[in-house]
Amino acid sequence: xxxxxxxxxxxxxxxxxxxxxxxxxxxxxxxxxxxxxxxxxxxxxxxxxxxxxxxxxxxxxxxxxxxxxxxxxxxxxxxxxxxxxxxxxxxxxxxxxxxxxxxxxxxxxxxxxxxxxxxxxxxxxxxxxxxxxxxxxxxxxxxxxxxxxxxxxxxxxxxxxxxxxxxxxxxxxxxxxxxxxxxxxxxxxxxxxxxxxxxxxxxxxxxxxxxxxxxxxxxxxxxxxxxxxxxxxxxxxxxxxxxxxxxxxxxxxxxxxxxxxxxxxxxxxxxxxxxxxxxxxxxxxxxxxxxxxxxxxxxxxxxxxxxxxxxxxxxxxxxxxxxxxxxxxxxxxxxxxxxxxxxxxxxxxxxxxxxxxxxx
Length: 360
Description:
Helices cover 46% and strands 16% of the residues. With 360 residues, the chain is of the alpha/beta class.
Protein backbone atom coordinates (compact mmCIF):
# COMPACT_ATOMS: atom_id res chain seq x y z
CA UNK A 1 0.00 0.00 0.00
CA UNK A 2 2.85 2.42 0.61
CA UNK A 3 4.03 2.55 -2.98
CA UNK A 4 0.70 3.58 -4.55
CA UNK A 5 0.20 6.25 -1.85
CA UNK A 6 3.67 7.64 -2.45
CA UNK A 7 3.01 7.66 -6.18
CA UNK A 8 -0.27 9.58 -5.72
CA UNK A 9 1.46 12.10 -3.41
CA UNK A 10 4.27 12.76 -5.92
CA UNK A 11 1.73 13.16 -8.73
CA UNK A 12 -0.29 15.75 -6.75
CA UNK A 13 2.83 17.76 -5.85
CA UNK A 14 3.96 17.74 -9.49
CA UNK A 15 0.57 19.02 -10.66
CA UNK A 16 0.57 21.82 -8.07
CA UNK A 17 4.06 22.96 -9.12
CA UNK A 18 3.00 22.91 -12.77
CA UNK A 19 -0.18 24.90 -12.10
CA UNK A 20 1.67 27.46 -9.97
CA UNK A 21 4.19 28.00 -12.76
CA UNK A 22 1.35 28.67 -15.22
CA UNK A 23 -0.29 31.45 -13.13
CA UNK A 24 -0.10 35.01 -14.62
CA UNK A 25 2.34 37.32 -12.75
CA UNK A 26 0.94 40.73 -11.71
CA UNK A 27 2.72 43.89 -10.42
CA UNK A 28 2.47 44.55 -6.68
CA UNK A 29 1.75 48.13 -5.63
CA UNK A 30 4.57 47.93 -3.10
CA UNK A 31 7.02 46.38 -5.56
CA UNK A 32 6.66 48.08 -8.94
CA UNK A 33 8.07 46.55 -12.08
CA UNK A 34 11.68 47.42 -12.65
CA UNK A 35 13.69 44.43 -11.53
CA UNK A 36 16.90 45.46 -9.83
CA UNK A 37 15.95 49.12 -9.26
CA UNK A 38 12.89 48.12 -7.23
CA UNK A 39 14.92 45.67 -5.17
CA UNK A 40 17.64 48.27 -4.56
CA UNK A 41 15.13 50.82 -3.36
CA UNK A 42 13.43 48.29 -1.10
CA UNK A 43 16.76 47.49 0.53
CA UNK A 44 17.80 51.14 0.96
CA UNK A 45 17.51 52.17 4.65
CA UNK A 46 15.80 55.48 3.76
CA UNK A 47 13.20 54.02 1.39
CA UNK A 48 9.59 53.09 2.15
CA UNK A 49 9.08 55.76 4.80
CA UNK A 50 5.63 56.94 5.87
CA UNK A 51 5.45 60.74 6.04
CA UNK A 52 2.69 62.82 7.66
CA UNK A 53 2.01 66.38 6.45
CA UNK A 54 0.11 68.40 9.09
CA UNK A 55 -1.39 71.59 7.62
CA UNK A 56 -3.08 74.49 9.42
CA UNK A 57 -4.97 75.47 6.30
CA UNK A 58 -5.18 73.96 2.82
CA UNK A 59 -6.49 76.76 0.65
CA UNK A 60 -6.02 77.82 -2.95
CA UNK A 61 -3.60 76.80 -5.66
CA UNK A 62 -0.51 77.75 -3.62
CA UNK A 63 -1.34 75.04 -1.06
CA UNK A 64 -2.17 72.58 -3.84
CA UNK A 65 1.20 73.12 -5.52
CA UNK A 66 3.03 72.96 -2.17
CA UNK A 67 1.43 69.56 -1.45
CA UNK A 68 2.36 68.46 -4.96
CA UNK A 69 6.01 69.33 -4.29
CA UNK A 70 5.98 67.41 -0.99
CA UNK A 71 4.51 64.30 -2.59
CA UNK A 72 6.75 64.49 -5.66
CA UNK A 73 9.96 64.59 -3.61
CA UNK A 74 8.84 61.95 -1.12
CA UNK A 75 7.88 59.58 -3.93
CA UNK A 76 11.32 60.06 -5.51
CA UNK A 77 12.75 58.91 -2.18
CA UNK A 78 10.45 55.88 -2.17
CA UNK A 79 8.21 57.39 0.53
CA UNK A 80 4.47 57.82 0.94
CA UNK A 81 2.71 61.00 2.19
CA UNK A 82 -0.53 61.31 4.18
CA UNK A 83 -1.99 64.84 4.41
CA UNK A 84 -3.81 65.97 7.57
CA UNK A 85 -5.76 69.22 7.01
CA UNK A 86 -7.04 71.31 9.91
CA UNK A 87 -9.31 73.94 8.22
CA UNK A 88 -7.57 76.73 10.15
CA UNK A 89 -8.47 75.15 13.52
CA UNK A 90 -5.34 75.14 15.70
CA UNK A 91 -6.86 72.69 18.20
CA UNK A 92 -7.56 70.29 15.35
CA UNK A 93 -4.03 70.82 14.06
CA UNK A 94 -2.60 69.84 17.46
CA UNK A 95 -4.89 66.79 17.46
CA UNK A 96 -3.73 65.83 13.94
CA UNK A 97 -0.11 66.07 15.09
CA UNK A 98 -0.92 63.82 18.04
CA UNK A 99 -2.60 61.32 15.70
CA UNK A 100 0.46 61.20 13.43
CA UNK A 101 2.68 60.45 16.46
CA UNK A 102 0.35 57.72 17.71
CA UNK A 103 0.23 56.17 14.23
CA UNK A 104 4.04 56.00 14.32
CA UNK A 105 4.85 57.82 11.09
CA UNK A 106 8.53 57.80 10.17
CA UNK A 107 8.63 61.58 9.80
CA UNK A 108 6.35 64.61 10.21
CA UNK A 109 6.13 67.78 8.13
CA UNK A 110 4.27 70.79 9.56
CA UNK A 111 2.84 73.64 7.47
CA UNK A 112 2.08 76.86 9.41
CA UNK A 113 0.51 76.87 12.88
CA UNK A 114 1.66 78.52 16.12
CA UNK A 115 4.15 77.60 18.81
CA UNK A 116 1.35 77.51 21.39
CA UNK A 117 -0.54 74.87 19.42
CA UNK A 118 2.44 72.84 18.22
CA UNK A 119 5.33 72.90 20.68
CA UNK A 120 4.07 70.16 23.02
CA UNK A 121 3.29 67.84 20.10
CA UNK A 122 6.63 68.47 18.40
CA UNK A 123 8.49 67.72 21.63
CA UNK A 124 6.45 64.52 21.99
CA UNK A 125 7.37 63.50 18.43
CA UNK A 126 11.06 64.13 19.08
CA UNK A 127 10.90 62.05 22.26
CA UNK A 128 9.38 59.23 20.19
CA UNK A 129 12.28 59.54 17.70
CA UNK A 130 10.00 60.84 14.94
CA UNK A 131 11.85 63.62 13.08
CA UNK A 132 9.93 66.87 12.46
CA UNK A 133 10.53 69.72 9.99
CA UNK A 134 8.36 72.86 10.10
CA UNK A 135 7.43 75.40 7.43
CA UNK A 136 6.31 78.95 8.28
CA UNK A 137 5.51 78.58 11.99
CA UNK A 138 7.17 80.42 14.89
CA UNK A 139 8.25 77.17 16.55
CA UNK A 140 11.44 77.07 18.63
CA UNK A 141 12.28 73.50 19.57
CA UNK A 142 15.96 72.60 19.65
CA UNK A 143 16.92 70.30 16.80
CA UNK A 144 13.75 70.99 14.79
CA UNK A 145 14.44 72.82 11.49
CA UNK A 146 12.04 75.64 10.60
CA UNK A 147 11.81 76.81 6.98
CA UNK A 148 10.72 80.31 6.07
CA UNK A 149 10.48 82.13 2.76
CA UNK A 150 12.52 85.24 3.40
CA UNK A 151 9.30 87.09 4.20
CA UNK A 152 10.83 90.47 5.02
CA UNK A 153 12.77 90.39 1.76
CA UNK A 154 9.61 89.58 -0.22
CA UNK A 155 7.79 92.48 1.39
CA UNK A 156 10.71 94.82 0.66
CA UNK A 157 10.86 93.71 -3.00
CA UNK A 158 7.20 94.42 -3.66
CA UNK A 159 6.97 97.62 -1.60
CA UNK A 160 10.08 99.09 -3.22
CA UNK A 161 8.64 98.35 -6.67
CA UNK A 162 5.36 100.00 -5.63
CA UNK A 163 7.25 103.13 -4.54
CA UNK A 164 9.32 103.16 -7.74
CA UNK A 165 6.25 102.84 -9.99
CA UNK A 166 4.40 105.54 -8.02
CA UNK A 167 7.30 107.98 -8.08
CA UNK A 168 7.69 107.87 -4.31
CA UNK A 169 4.25 109.30 -3.57
CA UNK A 170 1.11 107.17 -3.18
CA UNK A 171 -2.09 106.39 -1.31
CA UNK A 172 -2.19 102.66 -0.63
CA UNK A 173 -4.50 99.97 0.72
CA UNK A 174 -2.84 97.26 2.80
CA UNK A 175 -4.38 93.78 2.93
CA UNK A 176 -2.85 91.78 5.76
CA UNK A 177 -3.84 89.59 8.70
CA UNK A 178 -2.18 88.92 12.05
CA UNK A 179 -1.67 85.52 13.67
CA UNK A 180 0.57 83.88 11.06
CA UNK A 181 4.35 83.89 11.45
CA UNK A 182 5.09 84.83 7.81
CA UNK A 183 2.52 87.65 7.96
CA UNK A 184 4.09 89.04 11.12
CA UNK A 185 7.51 89.09 9.45
CA UNK A 186 6.06 90.82 6.39
CA UNK A 187 4.45 93.42 8.65
CA UNK A 188 7.85 94.26 10.17
CA UNK A 189 9.18 95.13 6.70
CA UNK A 190 5.98 97.08 5.92
CA UNK A 191 6.32 99.24 9.04
CA UNK A 192 9.97 99.99 8.25
CA UNK A 193 9.04 100.87 4.67
CA UNK A 194 6.29 103.27 5.75
CA UNK A 195 8.65 105.02 8.18
CA UNK A 196 11.21 105.46 5.40
CA UNK A 197 8.65 106.72 2.87
CA UNK A 198 6.57 109.51 4.47
CA UNK A 199 4.96 110.45 1.13
CA UNK A 200 3.34 107.03 0.90
CA UNK A 201 0.13 107.01 2.94
CA UNK A 202 -2.02 104.09 4.06
CA UNK A 203 -5.65 105.06 3.42
CA UNK A 204 -7.21 101.71 4.36
CA UNK A 205 -6.21 98.36 5.85
CA UNK A 206 -8.12 95.09 6.19
CA UNK A 207 -7.75 91.33 5.84
CA UNK A 208 -8.95 88.02 7.26
CA UNK A 209 -8.08 84.39 6.61
CA UNK A 210 -11.37 82.61 5.99
CA UNK A 211 -12.65 79.55 4.16
CA UNK A 212 -13.19 81.84 1.12
CA UNK A 213 -10.40 84.37 1.57
CA UNK A 214 -10.19 85.57 -2.04
CA UNK A 215 -13.96 86.01 -2.36
CA UNK A 216 -14.28 87.77 1.01
CA UNK A 217 -11.35 90.04 0.10
CA UNK A 218 -13.05 90.91 -3.18
CA UNK A 219 -16.22 91.98 -1.34
CA UNK A 220 -14.28 94.12 1.12
CA UNK A 221 -12.20 95.70 -1.64
CA UNK A 222 -15.39 96.56 -3.57
CA UNK A 223 -16.66 98.40 -0.48
CA UNK A 224 -13.40 100.34 -0.16
CA UNK A 225 -13.54 101.36 -3.83
CA UNK A 226 -16.93 102.93 -3.15
CA UNK A 227 -15.38 104.94 -0.31
CA UNK A 228 -12.59 106.12 -2.63
CA UNK A 229 -14.30 106.53 -6.03
CA UNK A 230 -11.97 109.06 -7.65
CA UNK A 231 -8.78 108.48 -9.58
CA UNK A 232 -5.85 109.21 -7.29
CA UNK A 233 -7.75 108.36 -4.10
CA UNK A 234 -5.95 105.00 -4.20
CA UNK A 235 -2.68 104.52 -6.06
CA UNK A 236 -1.95 100.89 -5.24
CA UNK A 237 -2.88 97.84 -3.19
CA UNK A 238 -0.22 95.94 -1.25
CA UNK A 239 -1.39 92.38 -0.53
CA UNK A 240 0.63 90.28 1.92
CA UNK A 241 -0.76 86.97 0.57
CA UNK A 242 -1.76 85.84 -2.91
CA UNK A 243 -5.31 84.99 -1.77
CA UNK A 244 -5.64 88.67 -0.81
CA UNK A 245 -4.15 89.78 -4.13
CA UNK A 246 -6.59 87.64 -6.12
CA UNK A 247 -9.57 89.17 -4.37
CA UNK A 248 -8.26 92.71 -4.86
CA UNK A 249 -7.53 92.15 -8.55
CA UNK A 250 -11.03 90.82 -9.23
CA UNK A 251 -12.62 93.76 -7.44
CA UNK A 252 -10.55 96.26 -9.45
CA UNK A 253 -11.31 94.53 -12.73
CA UNK A 254 -15.04 94.46 -12.06
CA UNK A 255 -15.01 98.14 -11.12
CA UNK A 256 -12.91 99.06 -14.16
CA UNK A 257 -10.33 100.76 -11.94
CA UNK A 258 -7.33 100.61 -14.28
CA UNK A 259 -5.69 103.43 -12.30
CA UNK A 260 -4.85 101.17 -9.34
CA UNK A 261 -2.01 98.62 -9.31
CA UNK A 262 -1.65 95.51 -7.12
CA UNK A 263 1.59 94.24 -5.58
CA UNK A 264 1.42 90.80 -3.97
CA UNK A 265 3.37 88.02 -2.28
CA UNK A 266 3.39 84.32 -3.24
CA UNK A 267 2.85 82.72 -6.63
CA UNK A 268 0.81 79.86 -8.08
CA UNK A 269 -0.41 78.89 -11.56
CA UNK A 270 -3.69 80.70 -10.92
CA UNK A 271 -1.83 83.83 -9.80
CA UNK A 272 0.38 83.73 -12.87
CA UNK A 273 -2.62 83.51 -15.19
CA UNK A 274 -4.14 86.56 -13.50
CA UNK A 275 -0.90 88.55 -13.75
CA UNK A 276 -0.55 87.69 -17.46
CA UNK A 277 -4.12 88.68 -18.31
CA UNK A 278 -4.40 91.69 -20.60
CA UNK A 279 -4.65 94.97 -18.66
CA UNK A 280 -4.29 93.12 -15.34
CA UNK A 281 -3.70 95.50 -12.42
CA UNK A 282 -1.41 92.90 -10.78
CA UNK A 283 1.99 94.48 -11.48
CA UNK A 284 4.43 92.35 -9.50
CA UNK A 285 4.86 89.69 -6.83
CA UNK A 286 7.64 88.08 -4.82
CA UNK A 287 7.61 84.39 -4.03
CA UNK A 288 9.32 81.07 -3.59
CA UNK A 289 8.03 78.34 -5.91
CA UNK A 290 5.49 76.49 -3.72
CA UNK A 291 6.55 73.16 -5.23
CA UNK A 292 10.15 73.95 -4.34
CA UNK A 293 9.12 74.69 -0.75
CA UNK A 294 7.56 71.24 -0.49
CA UNK A 295 10.54 69.52 -2.12
CA UNK A 296 13.08 71.28 0.11
CA UNK A 297 11.11 70.58 3.29
CA UNK A 298 11.05 66.87 2.44
CA UNK A 299 14.82 66.86 1.82
CA UNK A 300 15.53 68.30 5.26
CA UNK A 301 13.17 65.77 6.85
CA UNK A 302 15.05 62.93 5.16
CA UNK A 303 18.31 64.42 6.38
CA UNK A 304 16.95 64.05 9.91
CA UNK A 305 15.67 60.52 9.22
CA UNK A 306 19.22 59.76 8.05
CA UNK A 307 20.61 60.87 11.42
CA UNK A 308 21.90 64.25 10.24
CA UNK A 309 21.42 67.56 12.08
CA UNK A 310 20.45 70.39 9.70
CA UNK A 311 20.38 73.94 11.03
CA UNK A 312 17.32 75.03 13.02
CA UNK A 313 16.55 78.10 10.84
CA UNK A 314 16.46 77.68 7.06
CA UNK A 315 15.63 80.67 4.86
CA UNK A 316 14.50 80.09 1.28
CA UNK A 317 15.52 82.66 -1.31
CA UNK A 318 12.55 84.47 -2.89
CA UNK A 319 12.25 85.48 -6.53
CA UNK A 320 10.79 88.74 -7.87
CA UNK A 321 8.29 88.43 -10.72
CA UNK A 322 7.25 91.49 -12.74
CA UNK A 323 4.41 91.46 -15.22
CA UNK A 324 6.61 93.37 -17.68
CA UNK A 325 9.15 90.50 -17.75
CA UNK A 326 6.60 87.86 -18.76
CA UNK A 327 5.90 86.78 -22.36
CA UNK A 328 2.78 87.76 -24.30
CA UNK A 329 1.60 84.14 -24.45
CA UNK A 330 0.27 82.27 -21.43
CA UNK A 331 2.72 80.16 -19.39
CA UNK A 332 2.60 78.10 -16.18
CA UNK A 333 4.92 78.12 -13.19
CA UNK A 334 6.66 75.07 -14.72
CA UNK A 335 7.87 77.38 -17.53
CA UNK A 336 8.45 80.47 -15.41
CA UNK A 337 12.17 79.72 -14.96
CA UNK A 338 12.64 80.44 -18.67
CA UNK A 339 11.78 84.11 -18.02
CA UNK A 340 12.53 84.68 -14.32
CA UNK A 341 15.98 83.75 -12.98
CA UNK A 342 16.01 81.48 -9.94
CA UNK A 343 12.47 80.17 -10.20
CA UNK A 344 11.84 76.48 -9.39
CA UNK A 345 15.44 75.30 -9.68
CA UNK A 346 16.60 75.07 -6.06
CA UNK A 347 18.84 72.17 -5.00
CA UNK A 348 18.69 73.31 -1.37
CA UNK A 349 18.62 70.47 1.12
CA UNK A 350 20.14 67.81 -1.13
CA UNK A 351 22.99 65.67 0.22
CA UNK A 352 25.03 62.94 -1.46
CA UNK A 353 22.99 60.29 0.39
CA UNK A 354 19.68 61.78 -0.77
CA UNK A 355 20.83 62.02 -4.37
CA UNK A 356 21.85 58.36 -4.21
CA UNK A 357 18.45 57.45 -2.76
CA UNK A 358 16.61 59.40 -5.45
CA UNK A 359 18.73 57.74 -8.13
CA UNK A 360 17.45 54.35 -7.03
